[in-house]
């Protein structure tokens, strides 16, 4: 066990320019000017001290050969799931992957053939759609439905039709960008619907550890499904890559791992193994403090918008650090993009998340309070009329 203690100072500014990071160093190219980047989903917080200590210890040995400690990382993942989400998968169900998105692409190839239909529920994280289209499959959309408060739910009428036409459904759980943590009842209904139709579910649960409400791992209720996850989002380790697949069903697991092998994404790299093992073993206290800080940031956004921009639609997310803002009263998407750029603020445009994203932007609030306040002030300037 690492001897380092996790000090927590999320207010500390971590300068990131010049580190080769996409979020900061790639923002000017993406947006066409220098902006305050509050877009791509990584956090402007230092990783836990225990993770840094374990990485430094490994770096102190100057030989970086092929790793052989994948079993330790998988055991740490299983132990973490048991503590954090009250579910312990059998050890045979877990396997390493090079990352969640490559595994999402592999699942498409493993369980469907070119031209077949795959269900996604937009607005949704863009790789869900590109994984289908880049592999020559057909998108079958079952768009989410939002009420007047910005609370989204699954479109059961559309899903009941779609599952009769598709062999695969890609589930985002919790759902990025709309901020939902699906309830056990919702997941039970979805799982039953798909099981009766013979439609396999692949559940991307990479944001699950940051849930503010209880999260239900999908295979804990429906073993004939695939769970993909990583410590990347919840401990700010995304740049290291790596991840875990969890598939209780033997037949599905064999089919998936065969495609993973063909795609050569069956390994997690040396430093991701070290970091994720450390995070899952020793990071619970740090992450609990993180969730509280993010919850406070989410409330800060709500208070700011209520006072300064009451026409912006916003519902505090049920997990993580992604605010889904309805800004359609302020103009069309092209106009909004121009106004945000003039104010020096870089956000994800809603249309990039597919149908239902029009008139929205996604704001990443995993930043020190002072940075978030500056970002909100720039948003006010962009939308001020």
From TrEMBL:
Entry-linked CDD domains: AAT_like
Pfam families documented for this protein: Aminotran_1_2
Cofactor needs: pyridoxal 5'-phosphate
Annotated EC: 4.4.1.13
Alphabetized Gene3D superfamilies for the sequence: Aspartate Aminotransferase, domain 1, Type I PLP-dependent aspartate aminotransferase-like (Major domain)
Keywords, sorted A to Z: Aminotransferase, Lyase, Pyridoxal phosphate, Transferase
Annotated TM spans: none
GO molecular function: cysteine-S-conjugate beta-lyase activity; pyridoxal phosphate binding; transaminase activity
Domain of life: Bacteria
InterPro entries registered for this protein in UniProt: Aminotransferase_I/II_large, C-S_lyase_PatB-like, Class-II_PLP-Dep_Aminotrans, PyrdxlP-dep_Trfase, PyrdxlP-dep_Trfase_major, PyrdxlP-dep_Trfase_small
Domain Aminotransferase class I/classII large: 42-379
Family: Belongs to the class-II pyridoxal-phosphate-dependent aminotransferase family. MalY/PatB cystathionine beta-lyase subfamily.
NCBIfam families, sorted: C_S_lyase_PatB
Name assigned to this protein: cysteine-S-conjugate beta-lyase
Organism: Acidithiobacillus ferrooxidans (Thiobacillus ferrooxidans)
């Amino acid at each position: 066990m690492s001897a380092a203690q996790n000090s927590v100072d999320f207010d500390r500014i971590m300068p990131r320019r010049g580190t080769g990071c996409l979020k900061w160093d790639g923002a000017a190219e993406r947006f066409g000017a220098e902006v305050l980047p509050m877009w791509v989903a990584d956090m402007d917080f230092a990783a836990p001290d225990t993770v840094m200590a374990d990485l430094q210890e490994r770096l102190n040995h100057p030989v970086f050969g092929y790793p052989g400690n994948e079993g330790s990382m998988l055991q740490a993942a299983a132990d973490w799931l048991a503590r954090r989400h009250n579910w312990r998968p059998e050890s045979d169900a877990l396997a390493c992957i090079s990352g969640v998105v490559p595994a999402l692409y592999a699942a498409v190839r493993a369980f469907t053939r070119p031209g077949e239909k795959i269900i996604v529920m937009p607005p949704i994280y863009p790789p869900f759609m590109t994984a289908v289209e880049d592999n020559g499959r057909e998108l079958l959309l079952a768009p989410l439905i939002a009420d007047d408060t910005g609370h989204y739910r699954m479109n059961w009428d559309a899903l009941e039709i779609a599952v009769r036409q598709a062999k695969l459904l890609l589930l985002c759980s919790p759902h990025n960008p709309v901020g939902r943590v699906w309830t056990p009842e919702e997941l039970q209904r979805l799982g039953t619907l798909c099981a009766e139709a013979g439609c396999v579910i692949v559940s991307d649960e990479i944001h699950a550890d940051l849930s503010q409400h209880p999260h239900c791992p999908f295979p804990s209720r429906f073993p004939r499904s695939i769970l993909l996850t990583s410590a990347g989002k919840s401990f700010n380790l995304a740049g290291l890559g790596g991840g875990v697949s969890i598939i209780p069903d033997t037949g599905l697991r064999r089919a998936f791992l065969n495609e993973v092998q063909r795609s050569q994404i069956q390994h997690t790299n040396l430093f991701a193994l070290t970091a994720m093992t450390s995070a899952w073993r020793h990071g619970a206290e740090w992450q609990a403090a993180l969730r509280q800080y993010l919850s406070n940031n989410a409330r800060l956004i709500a208070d700011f918008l209520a006072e300064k921009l009451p026409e912006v639609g916003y519902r505090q997310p049920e997990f993580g650090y992604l605010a889904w803002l309805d800004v359609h009263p302020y103009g069309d998407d092209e106009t909004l993009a121009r106004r945000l750029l003039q104010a020096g603020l870089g956000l994800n445009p809603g249309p990039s998340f597919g149908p239902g994203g029009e008139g929205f932007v996604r704001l990443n609030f995993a930043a020190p309070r002072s940075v978030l306040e500056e970002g909100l002030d720039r948003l006010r300037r962009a939308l001020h009329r």
